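Record 1 of the preview.
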Amino acid sequence: MPDAGHPSILIVDDDDMIRSYLSLILRQEDYTIMGEVGDITRAERVLSLKPVSLVFLDINLPGTDGLTALKTLRASYPKTRFIMISSESTSQNVKAAMAEGAKGFVTKPFNAEKVIQAAHRALESRDE
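->
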């Protein structure tokens, strides 16, 4: 995993306001934000250039669904951890995300405490 002293985070969501809010919350906790992108193509570009500890990944992205993206990205970046974010927290979505290797699931709208707790849990989790 990238530098555990200062975990780095990539935010992938097609909503500018969600990206900005997540970034604000996480920067206040001294996380390094490696990028805020709105689609999987840009996410792959950031991940290919810089080591990232954790990715917040929207389950509904333009051009692909987040679960497919999660599967692809986990295969390419096995040491990176992922937290799915969605406005739909159906048990089916949560189970599918966890089955694909997500370390957490945050439902929109969210508050700072839930985001921080999810990030801490994901970064402290062991790889399986």
